[in-house]
Specification:
Length: about 260
């Protein structure tokens, strides 16, 4: 599993990877990796000597870097899931690409079972939120300089989950291929009725939030003055289909805990 999309996909299909890149990053994203998984380094530059010694049957990834791909192909074939296509249908692509891979490795039944579980989770979350009207939501990662955030919207899996749960994204501006855009915090004043939800990466986020609170732009934002700010635990914002279930549950729990969040 070359990247953080590949490993959860394999785990969801009941096929723990032999090796994976950047294993230390998984725990903070709520992904339990078996101790048997071998660390192979950063995804764009894995340890090729180690990979050769492991002698895998197949590499799984979701991004295609020609230079890395050429090196990997000397060791084993690579299956690339084409998830982020910039057309607003990322969740559908994530599901269809996971199924395409499952068919290749003869795990269709496992994929079908997993899809059923995720569908049930989405319906459960939608039902839990159905009787309440929630404000539009800014979903962001906090920036390191105290002046910027990364906001998520169209083209992200999170936007598709918003749609499935009947929620509204406060950010309607342009998005990148992965459904993200780095903006100045002052741009978050565009929707005065919104709630802001930031992704909490534990100790890192504490310092970032402190920098933001020192910003005059931040302190005058409507959701700040009205105390409409909350957080949810970390998840993979650039993930594949397994991101859907975790994000839906975290978002639903976070919103239901905000008793005063009626629009």
């Amino acid at each position: 599993a070359i990247d953080k999309v590949a490993a959860p996909t394999l785990l969801a299909l009941g096929m723990p990877p032999i090796a994976a890149g950047a294993i230390q990053a998984y725990a903070r994203l709520g992904i339990a990796m078996p101790r048997s998984v071998i660390e192979i380094g950063v995804p764009v530059e894995p340890n090729l000597e180690l990979l050769q010694s492991i002698n895998p049957d197949l590499f799984l990834t979701h991004f295609d870097v020609p230079r890395a791909r050429a090196r990997l192909d000397r060791i084993a074939p690579t299956f690339t899931m084409k998830i982020y296509q910039g057309d607003g249908h990322t969740l559908e692509h994530a599901r269809s690409e996971m199924l395409r891979f499952a068919r290749m490795v003869e795990k269709q039944d496992a994929a079908s079972s997993y899809f059923g579980r995720v569908d049930a989770t989405l319906e459960e979350c939608r039902t839990a939120l159905r009787d309440r009207q929630f404000r539009p939501i800014y979903l962001v990662q906090l920036g390191s300089n105290g002046r910027n955030v990364t906001v998520f919207g169209n083209n992200s899996i999170m936007q598709n989950v918003f749609d499935r749960l009947g929620l509204h994204n406060a950010w309607t501006g342009p998005m990148g291929l992965y459904g993200q855009r780095n903006i100045g915090v002052e741009e978050l004043a565009q929707n005065r009725d919104a709630r802001l939800i930031y992704i909490d990466y534990d100790d890192d986020t504490t310092g970032l939030l402190a920098r933001l609170t020192a910003s005059p732009f931040w302190s005058h934002l409507p959701f700040v003055t009205a105390n409409r700010i909350s957080s949810i635990p970390a998840f993979d914002v650039y993930g594949g289909y397994p991101t859907v279930e975790r994000f839906a549950r975290l978002l639903t729990a976070g919103l239901l805990s905000q008793a005063d969040d009626h629009a």
